[in-house]
Design brief:
This protein has about 280 residues and is of the alpha/beta class. It is built from nine helices and twelve strands. About 5% of the residues have low confidence.
């Protein structure tokens, strides 16, 4: 018969092994690094072009549906710093680090001009913050705030000047409904996944998440598409007619002998220098 001491030792070892196995089963939160240069390139493109680039590659929905600019002139571009909220519960409120060590303030201090704070709310009408909390984001010159929840103290937030994208605005308090729980984990906003370090690009059409792991390739495809669309628009403006002759088109499927292929050739875009043509897709 095993002694009680031996059994306790064996049980502790088994528990430690299980804990180790569980930690190994959790993948890394971040998917890679995006350079300042690449972030600048991505920010030069429209959200539509970026969504199209990801769609061509077969990636799932990349737009954070329902997150809209607080003001019509707002645009944002930055690497994601994530904050996850969970529904309010007494023990959650007790166990959450208090005061300045709260996960939300931990996230705030990771932000600057090249970061966008992504706040995953438990619901569209719950407040993720407002005037006093967001004053710190102004002081940090944050690149933007994106949430699938709502913000309060709208006049003050607009005066702060940083780009803010939310489901709506509200007068409600947030703590009664949810608590900030984790900084820089993988978060889900309306079915769209955001990992820390992903590129977050926002304009009047919405907010798009460009995964860090494929940012270079997405830019290559999206930039190529925007070039082609400008050429098509220029041609249709000079020679009015139905766009169906040239548009829509599928990246990686344009035939050189097609009307669009021939038009692009007059502008110096050919299978030799573009991945938009049939047989040249590199994704």
């Amino acid at each position: 018969m095993l002694s009680s001491t031996f059994r306790r030792t064996a049980l502790r070892a088994a528990n430690n092994n299980n804990l180790f196995a569980r930690s190994m089963a959790t993948g890394p939160a971040s998917g890679g690094e995006i350079s300042d240069e690449m972030l600048s390139k991505l920010s030069s493109l429209s959200t539509q072009a970026l969504v199209d680039g990801l769609w061509v590659m077969g990636w799932p929905n990349a737009q954070i549906n329902g997150s809209r600019a607080l003001a019509s002139t707002m645009k944002c571009a930055g690497r994601a710093v994530t904050l996850n909220f969970v529904p309010a519960r007494p023990d959650i409120a007790q166990d959450k680090p208090a005061g300045g060590t709260s996960p939300e303030y931990e996230a705030f201090e990771l932000c600057g001009p090249n970061e966008v704070l992504v706040m995953a709310s438990v619901g569209p009408w719950e407040s993720v913050g407002g005037d006093i909390k967001f004053l710190r984001l102004k002081q940090l010159a944050i690149g933007g705030l994106v949430t699938n929840g709502s913000v309060r103290d709208t006049d003050e937030v607009l005066d702060y000047g940083f780009p803010c994208f939310s489901h709506s605005v509200t007068a409600c308090q947030g703590p009664a409904a949810m608590q900030p729980w984790e900084c820089n984990g993988v978060v889900n906003l309306n079915g769209t996944v955001v990992r820390p370090g992903d590129a977050i690009i926002g304009d009047q059409d919405g907010v798009v998440v460009v995964p860090a792991k494929v940012a270079d390739k997405v830019y290559s495809i999206a930039h190529g598409r925007e070039q082609i669309e400008e050429i098509v628009k220029e041609e249709l403006s000079a020679n009015p007619g139905p766009p169906g002759k040239f548009y829509p088109f599928m990246s990686g499927k344009i035939k050189p002998e097609s009307p669009l292929g021939q038009l692009l050739a007059t502008k110096g875009i050919t299978p030799e220098n573009s991945n938009q043509f049939e047989g040249k897709a590199d994704w």
